[in-house]
Amino acid sequence: MDYADYLGLDGLFECQNPQSDAHDELLFIIQHQTSELWMRLALHELHAARTAILAGEIQPSFKMLARVARIFEQLNSAWDVLRTMTPSEYTRFRPSLGGSSGFQSFQYREIEFLLGNRNPAMIDIHKNRPDVMARLRTELERPSLYDAAISMLCGAGFDIAPETTHRALDRGYHPDPSVEAAWKAVYGDPGRHWDLYEMGEKLVDLEDYFRRWRFNHVTTVERVIGAKPGTGGTGGVTYLRKMLETVLFPELWSVRTSL
Ligand code: HEM
Ligand SMILES: N[C@@H](CC(=O)c1ccccc1NC=O)C(=O)O
Q1: Which of 13, 226, 232, 257 has CA 20 to 30 A from 239's CA?
Q2: Is residue 174 part of a domain?
Q3: 225 lines ligand 1 (CB under 6 A)
Q4: Which reaction(s) does the protein catalyse, per the Swiss-Prot or TrEMBL entry (predicted)?
């Protein structure tokens, strides 16, 4: 076995098939394919991190979460390459994209679901892909990464309201004063709750990087298509700006006001 065999390079290089003769379409394709590969690794790490937390293996989960934050950093730097594409260059091949859109990235949706940003309506977009729908539905049956962190709070003896511990898993998370109170106790005495303190900071770190990704995306989109509607059927920049308001781990942010 040689380098190309091991990495399956022949198969990999068969996957770049521009639909037009526009020079910049190869950049666009490779940018998205590399993003999807990094997302694949992020999912691999996030699934394992959640399993580790639920099994009480906290130190190994930190290692994986730190790696996910670095992956997001990688994805954030990659926008600089795509930003070299001007509106004139993108317009040359945009019609070739048809109805395809980042909105249909099922790995991206799985990351959102796994972290806790859950909206079952987003599954319907994949109605022509039963395998993808099943995969996303399965994810909605599991506790999110944040639910796993909250189960750590319960395990440490904090009294978490049943509205949170026994909530329906397949929808958005609602902030709860008992969770904020627990994080407040953790941040108030890090030495006593070091694992939880470190977990809180790892999650804030992750969300911080994720926010930068959303911001880079919307800025690049505005730079390239202005206020045009998206190929996925949304308002485009208006929709993506709205998504900037998403908060994944709400009490970890709100608690900072009272520390
Ligand atoms: C010139 C580059 C890009 C443009 C013009 C663009 C445009 C858009 C627009 C307008 C949307 C809203 C949905 C729609 O109506 O289509 C969207 C969503 C999305 N895009 Fe992009 N995008 C670009 C690059 C990328 C890249 C590099 C990625 C990386 C994978 C990406 C991933 C996504 C994802 C995951 C969504 C769904 C976001 C959500 O639902 O919160 N996009 N994009
Ligand atoms: N929604 C974009 C198209 C688009 O971005 C896209 C199309 C095909 C494959 C990936 C895409 N990227 C991210 O949304 C647009 O409206 O121009």
Answers
A1: 257
A2: yes
A3: yes
A4: L-tryptophan + O2 = N-formyl-L-kynurenine
